[in-house]
Structure formats: C-alpha cells, structure tokens
Amino acid sequence: MRPPPTDDGADTTGPPDRQTLCLLEWILSDEPAVAATEFAPDSYEPRLLRALLDAGRYPSTVDTGRLDIR
Amino acid sequence: LYSAHLLSPSATDICEFQTYIAKQHVALPMTEFDPTPDPDAVDTVRQRWREDTDTFGRVYDTILGVTTLTPYTEIADVAECSPNAAKKHLERLVEMGIAHTDRDSRPAQYERNEGYIEWQEASRIATDLTVDDIIERVQRLEAHREEYEDRFETTDPSSVEVFAQDDHDAIHERMEVVSEWHALERDIRLYELARQLAQNDGHLIPA
C-alpha cells in the first residue's frame, strides 16, 4: 500500500468528520421526534447520516419537516 | 416518516439541532421556513443536554468537535459550565490522551487528539470485523480510488481544481467528489490500522 496523500485540503472539500457525525447520531437517537438514525453506507465508512422523523408526533396537517444543525 | 438527509457539518461545528414543522396543508419549499431557529426550542434541546449529561460528559462531547486549538473559556461556553470546571475536565482528558493542549498560550487552549480518535476508530473496526472483511473493504475502496485517479489524472485529491468550473452545479459536484475521495483515503488508512490490530490481537506490533 503506497503512502496516501494528505487530506488536509480546504474545509469545503474535506472528508465528513466522523466524530461529529457520530456525536450527532448519538444526540439524534436520543431525540423523541427522531424515529431512527442510520449511517450510509454504514457506520464503518460514514458518509451520510440519515434521520427519520416520527410523523406520528406531529399533527396531521404537518407535511414538511426541517432539521437544523448548528 | 419524514426523512432528513444530513450532510456532514464542518469539523468545528458543535451540534445543536431542532426540528421544525410547517403547519400548512401544502408542502412548502425549504426556503419558506423561518431561517432562524426558534430560541425556545433550541433552549429546550440544550436544557435536555444539561439534564442528561454531566459536566464531564458535556466537556467530552464538546472537545470531540474541536479540531483546532481553542481557549478553554470558549469550550466552557459551549459545554455550559464554568471555565474552571472546563479546564479541570480538559486537563483530565489530556491525561487520558483524548485531548491536546497548548499550555503556553494564555488562556490555555485545547483540541481533540486526532491520533487517539483514529486509534479508537480502528480498534472498533478491528473488534467488529474479520481480517477478510477488512481486506475486502480496502480492495473495494482502492478500486474506487483508481477510478478517481484516472478521472482526474492525479493521485492527490487536494490537487484537484474544484472552483474552476463553469457553473454552481458543476462546482458542487466536484466538491462532493473530492470530499468523497478524501474520505475514501482516510478510510483506507483506518482499515490498514485496523488490519494490523486485528492480526495482532489488538496490538499494533506482534507480541
């Protein structure tokens, strides 16, 4: 295996931060409005964190949700 | 169920989130949501964090998101504790190898220890996966890497020109590809470390 190139490029093109994603997943999984969380493709190569909101917790008139991460 | 896809935030972001609902019968485009989070809802989330997580846990959660040296006073603000408490717990995290510090700076600054975190992640992979699984994953990622190298005619994703594209969509696509490439390189390194650990009963070198 040859030495890999560095991954310290500009922030905008850096890899997803595994620790931040894991922390978000941990907090989201404890959030009552979130029914489930999952990493894609999986937790060993986390590129995306998907959260499924529990529609049953909202009135039937609600048809759109947004999740803000700050 | 509503599905929310969360792209990775920047490394220094401290997480704090809030769900929003739109009380309309017709689906709204996302731009019609109020761009500013409701302060009360944000307070609710942070209050739950304070109630469910002790001070050490909040400092620990916070330092895991700190990738550049940061004054302990700022870390205390995010962790919602006194500066003295934050400094005490940060020093403990330094002793545990989880954080780095620059004690010469005033005030003292801290950041997470990337080496420790990488080892922790590789150790988890080594525990969960077999050596064959790890090798198979590395082979798949290396094949993917070759595709990127062929496409961009370089072996270094940092050398790919991202912003010299014609339109916003092209720039966005190129940013995603380069980010994916960086992630792929990092994962290959983690799997290589995990393979060494798995082959040596959790040790980096044979006993």
Amount of beta strand of chain A: 25-35%
Specify the oligomeric state: heterodimer
Element order, helices and strands of chain A?
HEEE
Reported for the largest beta sheet of chain B, the result is: 3 strands, antiparallel
Tell me which protein chains meet in the greatest interface and how many residues each side has: A-B, 52 and 64 residues
Provide the low-confidence segments of chain B as ranges.
1-30
Which H/E pattern describes the elements of chain B? EEHHEHHEEHHH
Q: State the strand order across the main sheet of chain B.
A: 3-5-4
Task: Output the radius of gyration of chain B.
Answer: 21 Å
* Average pLDDT over all residues of chain A: 78
How big a fraction of the residues of chain B is strand?
A: 5-15%
The pLDDT mean of chain B sits at: 82
Structural class assignment of chain A: alpha+beta
Structure overview:
In chain A, β1 (34-40) and β2 (48-53) form a beta hairpin. Chain A is an alpha+beta fold. In chain A, 17% of the residues lie in helices and 26% in strands. Mean pLDDT of chain A is 78; it is low at 1-10. In chain A, strands 1-2 form a two-stranded antiparallel sheet. Chain B is mainly α and 207 residues long. Chain B has helices at 39-52, 55-63, 72-79, 83-95, 114-128, 131-152, 168-199, and strands at residues 2-6, 17-21, 70-71, 99-102, 109-112. A 3-stranded antiparallel beta sheet of chain B has the order 3-5-4. In chain B, β4 (99-102) and β5 form a beta hairpin. In chain B, α2 (55-63) packs across α4 (83-95), α5 packs across α7 (168-199) and α6 runs antiparallel to α7. The longest helix of chain B is centred in the C-terminal third of the chain and has 32 residues, at 168-199. Chain B is globular and about 50 Å long. Chain B starts with a strand and ends in an 8-residue tail after the last helix. Mean pLDDT of chain B is 82; it is low at 1-30. β2 of chain A pairs antiparallel with β1 of chain B, so a sheet runs across the interface.
